[in-house]
Specification:
The protein has 174 residues and is an alpha/beta fold. The chain has a single domain (10-173), classed as Rossmann fold (3-Layer(aba) Sandwich). 47% of the residues lie in helices and 14% in strands. It has 7 helices and 5 strands, in the order βαβααβαβααβα. The chain has a 5-stranded parallel sheet, sandwiched between helices. It is globular and about 45 Å long. Mean pLDDT is 87; it is low at 1-5.
């Protein structure tokens, strides 16, 4: 199946813990591919944002409706543009599976990995962001490394945004 843009439909989801650079990479891909990108944070309810702002980690029950809203929006972008670019922490395999079930096109996940100290420093340098650095440990504990059968591209989050973008573009084109 080929989209109206002449490409095989695909959803590209940039995943990882807070501070890993998901939004930065998604912006880079968005510009390179001349496509919009979906920021998963925009799909949280005000209650979920308030919970995180207060330093309380989300539960699976908080996350399922959020993942469904995001998955439907990604599906709509694939339908509209042939390719969708999105960010999502997607910390557990069950969350990634939920997105795969919701999105009709193939889904390619890109995991940005980084050292705790680097991630904490990045989180501390984001004024106005609701996610406090105190939740980094919870996110790292929740993160389930992708299994080989998930075919996830794993990248070092300390690489430059341009290097990360180019690696993703090469991977997606293969």
């Amino acid at each position: 199946m080929t989209s109206s843009r002449g490409v095989t439909p695909v959803a590209i989801i940039i995943m990882g813990v807070s501070g890993s650079g998901k939004s930065t990479l998604a912006r880079e891909l968005s510009v390179a591919m001349n496509l919009p990108f979906l920021e998963a944070d925009a799909f949280h309810t005000p209650e979920a944002v308030a919970k995180m702002t207060s330093g309380t980690p989300l539960t699976d029950d908080d996350r399922w409706p959020w993942l469904d809203r995001l998955g439907h929006a990604i599906n709509a972008d694939v339908t509209a543009h042939g390719v969708a670019i999105a960010t999502c922490s997607a910390l557990k395999r069950a969350y990634r599976d939920r997105l795969r079930q919701t999105i009709a096109a193939p889904v390619k996940f890109v995991l940005l990995e980084g050292e705790r100290e680097v991630l904490a420093r990045r989180m501390s340098n984001r004024p106005g962001h609701y996610m406090p650095p105190s939740l980094l440990s919870s996110q790292l504990e929740t993160l389930e490394q992708p299994d080989a059968d998930e075919h996830v591209l794993m990248l070092d989050a300390t690489q430059t945004p341009a290097m990360l973008r180019d690696a993703v573009l090469q991977w997606v084109r293969r």
